[in-house]
Amino acid sequence: MDKFVRLDGLVAPLDRANVDTDAIIPKQFLKSIKRSGFGPNAFDEWRYLDHGEPGQDVATRARNPNFVLNQARYQGASILLVRSNFGCGSSREHAPWALHDFGFRAIVGESFADIFFNNCFKNGLLPIVLPKAEIDALFGLTEHSPGYRLTIDLAEQRVVRPDGHAIPFEVDAFRKECMLNGWDDIGLTLRHAEKIREFETRRRAEQPWLFA
Amino acid sequence: MSRTLYEKLWDSHVVHVEEDGTALLYIDRHLVHEVTSPQAFEGLKLAGRKPWRISSIVATADHNTPTSHWELGIQDPISRQQVETLDANIREVGALAYFPFKDKRQGIVHVVGPENGATLPGMTVVCGDSHTSTHGAFACLAHGIGTSEVEHVLATQCLLQKKSKTMLVRVEGKVGAGVTAKDIVLALIGRIGTAGGTGYAIEFGGEAIRALSMEGRMTVCNMAIEAGARVGFVAADETTIAYLKGRNFAPKGDDWDKAAAVWRTLVSDADARFDTVIEMDARQIVPQVTWGTSPEMVTGIDGMVPAPEDFKDPVKSEGVARALQYMGLTPRMRIDQIPIDKVFIGSCTNSRIEDLRAAAAVAKGRTVAANVKLALVVPGSGLIKEQAEAEGLDKIFIAAGFEWRQPGCSMCLAMNDDRLNPGERCASTSNRNFEGRQGAGGRTHLVSPAMAAAAAIAGRFADVRQLS
Question: Residue B468 and residue B448: Cα distance in Å, rounded?
Answer without folding.
Answer: 18
